[in-house]
C-alpha cells in the first residue's frame, strides 16, 4: 500500500533565520570578492595608508528605510571625495542654482580627480573633481564664513541620519600634504572663482573630506539621493528635489572621474567614489548602495567596490536606462456608477435617475507611479469614451507622483474644466506632498473636489446627478412604513398591525444605534435622516436614508455583526424581534413576503459585490 508523504513542516527557528534573497545575494558577493587582492591602499595622504586592506563591507538601503548590511559595515572611514555630491547639493540649496552654476561647470573632464586644469571659461569642469569641490566649499564659506564647515557637517549628518564626526588625524595629514589642492585653490582665486581666503576655504575642504562615515551611513546617504532628497530612515527632506536631480546628473557623467564613461556604460547607476575606499551608488527611485574596501585601482576607485556594483547591476538588470515600466498598467479599474454605485442605499426615484444617467459619472482607479507617460495614457483612455459630467480619479493605490506627471494631470484638469466636467479626487489628502504638487498648477480651478474615501466621492457624484435631473434628497422628510422596501407587498391591514408594534426612536448625530456583537433583539426602519453601517474595523458597508431598513439581519442571526451610527439627526421605527415573530404567526403571508424581500435585498448586495470584484479582476 502506497503511503502518503509526511506533511510539509518548517521549524519555526529555520523560518525566523531565513534571509531575504537580496541579503543572500549581497552575502554571496562578499564571499566571492573578499579574496580579491588587487589594488593598493591610498598613501599619498599618509594617514589613509594605515587603513586595514582586509576590511570589506557592503550595505544597501531601500527607499522604505530598510538597510541591509554584510561584512565590515560599521567600520568608520573618511568620506573623502564622496562628500562632493552632497556639498554640491548643499551649495545649490544654500546659494541658489544661478550662483553655483555661474562658476562651476557640469561637463566631464576626462582627467584624474586632482587635475590642475580648468575649462575654457577658466572655471572647474564639474563639482566632482577637486577643483569643482573646492569651489563648492568656497561658496559655502562665502556665505557662512567660519561656520561653513559646521554647516557642511550638519548637512551630511542629515543625509546619513545621525551626527557625523571628523577624523582629526586624517584632517591634519591631508592639510600637511595638500599642496596640490592648494595649487588648485590659488588657480581658482586667480580666476575669481574663489573670492575668499584660499587657506580658510581649503581648511573647510580638508575637514569635509575627513568626516567619518561607515558603509551603512553611505548607503543611507545614497538612498536619500535616490529618494529625491528624503532620508528614507528619518523621513526628513534633506535637500530640494532640484538640487538632488542636478547632483545625480553630474554624478552620472563625472562621478567616477576618468572611469565615468566606462562606469555608466557597464553599470549604469549614478555613483561617486572616494580614495578612502568607499563607493556610493544611487539608483533613482530604487535604492542606495555602498561598499567599503580600501584597496584602489589606477583610477582611485575601490577594486572590490567596483565588483560589487557590477555584480548587483548585472544580476538584477539595474542599469538606469534599461527601464521597463509600462504606462498601460497604471489603470487598475475604469467603470461608470452603474457597475459600482456607492454604498448608499437609494430610494426608487433616485435609483431611476442614476440608472438612466449612469455613464455621466466615470471612475478611474489608478495604481503605481503617476509619471509623465502614465498620465498621458490615462488622459487618452479618458478621451476614448463619451464625455462624462463627473470624473473620479481614485489615487489610493498611487505610490508616487513625478512632477511631470503632476503637471500633466493638472493640465488635464484644466482641459476638463473647459468642457464643464467636474473632477473628484479620492485617496489623497490635502496635506500630502502630492496634493501640494498638483495644487501648484491648479490654482483658480473651481471644478475640483476631494473626498478621501472613494465611496464618499461616488456618493457625492451620485447626489449631483440626482439634483441635476430633477430629483430631491430630503433627509428630514419623514417616511411611513408603507414606503419601506423590506415591507413591499404588504396589505394596508398588515401594515397597520405592524405599525402598532413599532416605537419611534430619535437619535442625535454620531449616536451609536447598534453595536457589533450585541444581541439582535429588534428591527429598525429608518423614518428620517441618515445612518451608516460600519464593520468593527471601521470599514463602511452602507449609508442608509429614510425608507431603508437596518438591523434586518436579526431575522437570520442572533448577534449583531456591524455597528450602525447616525450620520445626522435621525428617527426610526423600532420593532422588537419577539413582537415581529408574533406578527408573522398572525400574518404568515406577510411574514413570507418579508423574507422574500430580504432574500432579494441580500441578492442585490451580492450582485453588487461581485460586480465590484469583477472590475478589479477584469483584463
TrEMBL record:
What residue stretches are annotated with the STAS domain? 351-429
Q: Where does substrate bind?
A: 81, 130, 174, 181, 205, 257, 275
| An example molecular function term from Gene Ontology annotations | glutaminase activity
Domain Cyclic nucleotide-binding: where?
Answer: 486-604
| Catalytic activity, EC | 3.5.1.2
Q: Can the keyword Hydrolase be found in this entry's annotation? A: yes
Q: Which UniProt keywords apply?
A: Acetylation, Hydrolase
Catalytic activity from the UniProt record: L-glutamine + H2O = L-glutamate + NH4(+)
CDD domains per UniProt: CAP_ED, STAS_SulP_like_sulfate_transporter
User: What PROSITE patterns would the database entry show?
Assistant: CNMP_BINDING_3, STAS
GO BP annotations of the record are:
glutamate biosynthetic process; L-glutamine catabolic process
Q: Where is the signal peptide?
A: none
Top enzyme class of this protein?
hydrolase
Q: Which SUPFAM superfamilies match?
A: beta-lactamase/transpeptidase-like, cAMP-binding domain-like, SpoIIaa-like
Similarity field: Belongs to the glutaminase family.
Q: What is annotated about its quaternary structure and interactions?
A: Homotetramer.
Question: Any idea what this protein is called?
Answer: Glutaminase
List the source organism: Bradyrhizobium australiense
